[in-house]
Specification:
Distance between the termini: 31 Å
Helix content: 25-40%
CATH superfamily of the largest domain: HUPs
Largest sheet: 8 strands, mixed
Shape: globular
Number of domains: 4
Structural class: alpha/beta
Number of strands: 19
CATH topology of the largest domain: Rossmann fold
Strand content: 15-25%
Radius of gyration: 26 Å
CATH architecture of the largest domain: 3-Layer(aba) Sandwich
Number of helices: 19
Length: 570
């Protein structure tokens, strides 16, 4: 298993690790007789398999904003070489991302396609054995380079040329909105005689401004759009209630308290033979792609999704780790999701500023809810149109009361715990800010007190997750850095440090018992009863705040869903 080690240019370990290689005549010959240099301005990324160095890439920091890859080495060819570089490059990109750095590379010609998969673009300067490349800098133009809009246009050209069934997943947010507008413009400017599908999952509860925007853009372009506006009572996660972990939009039994009337021409559960009552929203989304592919009798289907890697690390992984899955013709911005069915992410490398620049420059219609967010003082990067009941939205749920009081009034009686969460979602009453321990309690005692107040189903869920976590830390151990381990030792916390981990990390596995609380900056990495209390207060049924992975039961359910999906599309 390959591990990536990062060392400074003057680290003594660097010399011990690489001296046999950088002085090897065969290695120097492979580097076209160029010597390997280092200084305090270098950061070295080293791929190690066991005790064997498989390759390395030095990155020189030329200035505060510019860095260069040069004189790298990989001791393998073909598929193995690609795999090693595909482990090294994401580690570099994570540290020298385009939001802060202009990253250049003097790339061996044989590696050019591999670098391109990680969004490196060739510049005009070329040599016999090398090509100068740069990693695209969002929102700025480099001499001889294309901006993110031009690159998105190239991706649309591929999509509209090679797919006969194309649809956009449209939520009404800024990202899916700019993607839909760009597709509409592309069709009209190129006089394409096709109709573009629009897939909109209507969750019943949403700002009226968002609903108006969705209605407006769909109506204005109905001459070229096939609209699939689904109003389905699938399961949707909620963190507003201790009594329920999910709710259902458009639930028949609650029609009398729906927040709004079902839109005209909406598609309901009767339109989809694959729907069942145990289905989650994400599962429906997967099944829809295959349903539409069959309905259209398509040769090749593409779903365009407006996610951007800037938004979150999970989205970054969705794109950059897609090498593990099949892509369409090796296009890094695509992923295969079924037989002749692909997802595409044409604006994955856009920044938030790029989105708003495009809206302004091309005068595209957009969701004016973002104007109200701005006036309300919501940070630009936190302005999102999403389900109001997920954990991340608790803090801003109260904005409904101010921005859309009519909807708020109906929400209160629609989903359990909405009013309380709206009032206290940003306070320590629900685990935000500083949680105070009641006098006379330990955090462990307080946790059991909180559990005693919960309904049986919720209580058993937390206890089950706690048991799994306690056993994990006792037997396998969590991976911690050397500095965190030292802080635990200094705090006289009993721990057992092991040498090897099954995970791809330089951190060491540490076995330990749950602590009541611990006062170190790495608080969120340590198993404590205080963190469990916060999960309970937040109605965090999945215990994401604790860093819990899904349980075996939850993983089994997801695996069953994915396996069923694979059977359907194969």
């Amino acid at each position: 298993m390959i591990q990536i080690i990062q060392l400074k240019g003057k680290d003594k370990r660097l010399y011990r690790l690489l001296a046999p290689l950088v002085m090897d005549p065969d290695v120097i010959r492979a580097n076209n007789n160029y010597p390997f240099k280092t200084s305090e301005d270098y950061v070295w990324y080293i791929a190690v398999d066991g005790k064997e160095v498989k390759g390395f890439i030095p990155v020189e920091q030329k200035s505060k904003k510019k860095a260069v890859i040069n004189n790298y080495y990989v001791g393998a060819e073909n598929t193995e070489r690609e795999e090693i570089l595909s482990d090294l490059l994401p580690a570099i990109i994570k540290d020298f991302g385009p939001e802060s750095w202009l990253l250049h590379s003097i790339t061996l010609v044989q590696d050019k396609e591999i670098f391109e998969k990680f969004d490196f673009t060739s510049m005009d300067k070329k040599w016999t054995r090398y090509v100068k490349m740069y990693r695209r800098l969002m929102g700025k133009k480099v001499a001889g380079a294309k901006n993110v809009y031009e690159l998105a246009q190239e991706r649309l050209k591929v999509i509209f040329s090679e797919f006969d069934n194309i649809y956009v997943s449209f939520s009404g947010g800024k990202d899916s909105g700019v993607l839909l507008n760009m597709c509409i413009d592309y069709i009209r400017k190129n006089n394409l005689k096709i109709r573009l599908g629009v897939f909109h999952m209507d969750y019943e509860i949403q700002y009226k401004i968002t609903i108006d925007y969705v209605d407006r853009i769909l109506e204005a372009n109905k001459d070229i759009l096939d609209v699939y506006r689904v109003c389905i009572p699938f399961r949707v996660s909620t963190c507003t209630s201790m009594y329920q972990s999910f709710w259902r939009p458009w639930e028949d039994s609650k029609k009398n308290i729906w927040v709004r009337s079902m839109p005209k021409k909406a598609m309901t559960k009767e339109d989809f033979p694959f729907y069942n009552t145990s289905m989650w929203d994400y599962e429906f989304q997967m099944r829809f792609a295959q349903w539409l592919h069959n309905k259209k009798d398509a040769v090749r289907t593409c779903c365009l999704i407006g996610i951007r890697t800037q938004e979150s690390f999970n989205r970054w992984r969705c794109i950059y780790m897609s090498r593990k899955f099949q892509m369409y013709h090796k296009y890094k911005w695509t992923s295969k999701v079924g037989n002749d069915i692909y997802n595409a992410y044409p604006i994955y490398d856009w920044k938030t500023t790029d989105v708003w620049t495009a809206n302004g420059k091309f005068q595209w219609d957009y969701n004016t809810l973002y104007d109200l967010y701005y006036r309300a003082g919501v940070n630009l990067e936190r302005q999102r149109v999403a389900s109001p009941f997920i954990n991340e939205a608790q803090e801003s749920l109260q904005l409904y009361r101010v921005l859309d009081p009519n909807t708020w009034g109906k929400m209160v009686g629609r989903v359990n715990g909405v009013n309380f969460t709206g009032m206290y979602g940003g306070t320590h009453a629900m685990g935000w800010q500083s949680v105070k321990l009641p006098e006379g309690y330990t955090w462990r005692e307080f946790m059991y007190f909180l559990l005693s107040t919960l309904p049986e189903r919720a209580r058993k869920n937390y206890l089950r997750k706690l048991s799994v976590s306690v056993n994990f830390w006792r037997t396998k151990g969590g991976c911690l850095s050397d500095s965190t381990i030292q802080k635990l030792i200094d705090a006289k916390v009993p721990i057992v440090v092991m040498d090897n981990s099954n995970y791809k990390t330089l951190k060491k596995p540490v076995r330990m018992e749950y602590q009541d609380d611990i006062d170190i900056p790495e608080f969120k990495e340590i198993p404590t009863y205080k963190r469990m209390c916060i999960c309970i207060l937040k109605n965090d049924h999945a215990c994401k705040y604790m860093g819990f992975s899904p349980t075996k039961e939850e993983m089994s359910k997801r695996s069953q869903i994915m396996e069923q999906y694979r059977i359907i599309v194969s």
